[in-house]
Specification:
By secondary structure, the protein is of the alpha+beta class. It has ten helices and six strands, in the order ααααββββββαααααα. A hairpin with a 5-residue loop joins strand 2 and strand 3. It is found in: Cell membrane.
């Protein structure tokens, strides 16, 4: 039985790798076609390729559940097409044993995907985001899209980008006084000195008086703000660009500040529950291979896998976003479509054998 288990596991694993490679290739091609219009003198084709390649690890982790579903359908479907599954069943091998063998490689790649999501994808995605931010700085354009707004010490702060060392880029500080704008201070970048002290570089300050407006500039200026470099960096990133530990830590910080951290909590649970989602989809695939897709062609199995995968992903996004919109725990919202797949897969597996 051990050799048969390894044979089933290797079939599913190779199919998974092929599907993952195809999905990443399609994503690369479609993203390249969509983003090619952004290429100019400062944002070259090399920069675009860098951005796309840096984001591939995150895409790999994101595609793991769907690749698990289609890979299982392809791997076991190939065995079914050659009557190998029929021989295994005739030899007394129960369906649960075949399912257990198929789940082993999926569980392995899901755990590896979690490692990628925690240690590789965040760093790579953050580098890609920083490359795109530098494009705006080189052009001299200031765009609010993609940056972050913060409120600290009564001031409103806009940060265009930040790196993981705590350096900020494209900083604008709006200081109001009694519902009137007192001054606007801009800086090309800011570096943390110690505690709550920062140094602004290439500074321009516009002060608004009742009867006039004055503008001054300097190469350096001190800036005191009660926000840590870590929190500034995390605030400048999209939730999808953060690791599980960063999502959890920043969500706790927002909760202590009595700010809304539901988007970060939602992203945390969508990432944390990916291995369970992958196993749930494998159960659905197993019940389909031994059921309605038993005599289907390979193209039919792939098409069915794509439809089921899209339905699952849309359901996951729907319930997740709805939980945020109606102030419902995101963990429960994300768990609902996963639980439906698990229950449906278990029930169908019991009916098959």
């Amino acid at each position: 039985m051990n050799k048969i288990d390894k044979y089933i596991a290797s079939s599913v694993l190779w199919a998974f790798l092929i599907v993952a490679l195809v999905l990443l290739g399609l994503d690369f091609a479609l993203t390249f076609i969509e983003q090619i219009k952004k290429v100019n003198d400062s944002y070259t084709i090399q920069s675009l390729l860098q951005v796309i390649l840096y984001r591939l690890p995150g895409k790999l982790a994101e595609y793991t559940p769907i690749a698990s579903l289609i890979g299982t359908l392809m791997g076991l479907g190939t065995l079914a097409a050659t009557s190998e599954l029929t021989v295994m069943r005739a030899a007394g091998m129960p369906i649960w044993r075949i399912g257990f063998a198929a789940c082993q490689p999926i569980l392995l790649v899901s755990l590896l995907g979690m490692g990628v999501s925690e240690f590789i994808a965040p760093i790579a995605t953050q580098k890609a985001n920083l490359i795109e931010k530098f494009q705006d700085q080189k052009n001299g354009d200031f765009s609010l899209t993609g940056g972050v707004w913060l409120k600290a010490d009564g001031n409103f702060i806009y940060i265009d980008a930040a790196d993981n060392k705590g350096k900020l880029y494209g900083v604008k500080i709006f200081s109001p006084y009694e519902q009137q704008l007192q001054y606007i201070q801009t800086a090309a970048n800011a570096e943390h000195i110690e505690d709550s002290t920062w140094q602004l570089n290439d500074v321009s300050k516009t002060t608004f008086f009742p009867d006039r407006i004055e503008t001054s500039s300097s190469s350096h200026a001190d800036w005191s703000v009660s926000i840590t470099p870590e929190h500034l960096f995390l605030a400048s990133q999209e939730p999808s660009a953060l690791s599980l530990s960063q999502l959890m830590g920043y969500n706790q910080y927002l909760y202590k500040q009595k700010l809304d951290g539901s988007q970060y909590e939602l992203e945390f649970w969508m990432t944390a529950l990916r291995p369970i989602a992958s196993l749930a989809l494998v159960l659905v695939a197993l019940s389909s291979v031994f059921g309605p897709l038993r005599s289907s062609t390979m193209g039919g199995r792939i098409f069915s896998g794509v439809i089921i995968g899209l339905a699952f992903q849309n359901g996951l996004n729907l319930f997740g976003r709805m939980s945020v919109a109606i102030d419902f725990p995101p963990a429960i919202g994300v768990s609902i479509p996963i639980a439906i797949c698990l229950i449906a897969g278990i029930i169908l597996m019991k009916r098959r054998g």
